[in-house]
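Late entry, written up from scratch paper. The run itself happened at the end of the previous shift, but nothing got recorded in the book at the time, so transcribing now.
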Amino acid sequence: MGCSIWRIRHNFGHLKAQSKVSFFFTMIIIFTYLFYCLTGICDPLPRLVNEHQTLTSANKYNALGSFRDRLDFPTSSPQHQSSAQSHQNQTSAELPEEKKRTVPYEGGKALPPMPHAVKAREDVVDGISVFNNFGTKKFPQAIIIGVKKGGTRALLEFLRIHPDVRAVGTEPHFFDRFYERGLEWYRNLMPRTLDGQITMEKTPSYFVTKEAPGRVFTMSRSTKLIVVVRDPVTRAVSDYTQTLSKNPGLPTFQDLAFKNFSRGLIDTSWSAVRIGIYAKHLENWLQYFPLSSLLFVSGERLVTDPAGEIGRVQDFLDLKRVISDKHFYFNQTKGFPCLKKPEGSSHPRCLGKSKGRPHPHIPGEVLLRLRDFYRPFNLKFYQMTGQDFGWG
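Output as recorded:
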């Protein structure tokens, strides 16, 4: 009897000891898990999502950072530029149906139907988070829309040293060449931005494309537009010089610019001449945007006083004036300013060899007649913008 009682007590005590050990190890596991979760190492437990729960179209599109693309690296790198170019070389037929759909836009049409229901949280698309420490892809809040050979590349490169500016390295040409690919395709070309940063792109041909103003307005009527303008005669010669470098067999500047030189008939169908009729192109944009939405940057002052012109741009974009005289030096060989040596680099940053080419000799009489042609258009442009650029 006594032995039986002893055994029962012994077994009961042994069970209590086992329970205490199990409890002890369980608590160790729990506290270890909590520790790693607090330090951010473990993944959060997945949420249960109702099988029939779907995102609204608006949430779906807000969540689309770019689940197709890898995280952005600096857009000036050759790898990024080749990647962006490969996007542009796709044909519309190669794109899956859901990539051809448009996204909701300000003041536009009703949201299109989604290609399929998305059973996920609002911050997850196709299992990949698009709201993370690397920011999100957004439509550009500011676009450099023109003009070709006016100094747009220099302006963009200068602005990209500002910590609150993120810009596409290559020209997307969405609003003039690839509009049928849809706004989602366009947004996926953009770099990721954090709160307080602005997204930018530049495509100089937008300014002279008839359909571009309406298309930009459809995306967002609050888009800020920047136009870099330059003496239209000098700009035309620069444009011709660029084309001549690629096609040495090109006819002379005089032959292309004039239908009949002796009678002084200018050929306005030649793009190098047509682009410089700024007043005509501006009228097209003012049908959609108020003058306050546009900033006109002097291509000449961008060379002689880059900090001053960049200061105006920073104010227009509501950015803190970070870029100043200390960032520039004048390159006598190229004949335009360059950025001083960036931190961590052994060389200053200048534009490529294609910038600053010497112009071919153009007879003075040709330039004089072309200047007479542009004069009334220049005066009208001054009146429309409220700025005198001094081109005569």
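The longest helix spans residues 2-38.
(Scratch paper discarded after transcription.)
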